[in-house]
Fold this sequence. Notes:
By secondary structure, this protein is of the alpha+beta class.
Amino acid sequence: ARQKEEQDLWAAFFERYDVLLAPVSCTAAFPHDHQEPMRSRRITINGHEKSLLDSNVSWIVPATVAGLPATVAPVGLTDAGLPVGIQIIGARFEDRTTIAFARGLSRLLGGFTPPPGYEE
Length: 120
């Protein structure tokens, strides 16, 4: 029932707007460290240590719970040269809209720039 309520609220929002722009995560990119299990990993945000898993899923929950498409696009780099992305959320079943918006944003901003030390 709660999920249906969320879907109805989002449907009303997307009657007025094509997409919603939101952060992907509460941090910019960070080094991948797989020495600890995902549940044990920690990250520092604004000087406070937090659970990596709990901190980094909060911005993806609304689209996930409501079953909405979300596309992530690069929008720049931090002062340290790490990539920053934006989440483009669209109406239910409007995957092509979020992808098209990401494509246009990429053309406008120059697309993905590999961070220092990036290896293919």
